[in-house]
User: What shape does this take?
Amino acid sequence: MIKKTCLAKEKEIQFLTVFYLFSLLLVLPLIPYVKWQLSHLEAFLLAVIGVLALVAVYLFTVAMKKLELSYIKSMENLTPIFVLIFSVLVLGEGLTGKQLVGLLIVVGSALVFMNKEAKIFHVSFTKFLQSRYVIYVIVAVLIGAFTVILDRILLRTMDPLSLLFWGRLIMASGFIGLVFSGFNGLHDIKAGIKISGWLILVYAVMHVAMVYTYNLAMFDPTAISSIVVTIRRLGLILVVIFSARILHERSMWEKLAASVAMIGGLYLMLV
Assistant: This one.
């Protein structure tokens, strides 16, 4: 909700640069506890995750500025599906019949959201799927699912605090470099702070806390990647309700029904 509100007032690059700059400032006190001696594999994985995350976050944010929040969050709920697939292929985690049924329910529910969004834009379902913003979301979700697997591999040798710090450092450096090389540099940063600075700071605090708890969960050797990611997606119903009440998005009851079905599918993926 905070991110969508900020994006209504400013450019994507302004928001992202200020957000990751604030996030980096928040984790600077962790410097004494950070793992600085990185192995070649750890450095490589951090670099790959950083580049992929940079692309995914930017694409996702561009799409969020254009599309309804409830649709964006419903598409984000497809992440556990790809994480489940990648977990089976890369990490050797199991796939049960219930998880497969849950997967199909989640996909079906996502199609309902897509259909509603297509009607809002007054285009056919097929044409909507060809929209660059929908493609941005799908690419971002795929990249996000793959980086979850890389996070899990990295957390075998790196502690959650160090991953939190390195992630914020890499993302902040990436967006600062991007804003100075391809946009208006310091002007965009100042504009982002001036327009929505306090809101972005609040969002940064919440996001840093969320990422750290996520890292803690993934650090647990008994954790299953798809389950951890699934739990993160259970706020969809609240997003639908708040989006309708605050952002005045339409078709709340239909989206709410699809949300309940999607969460039911996610539950089946948990058990």
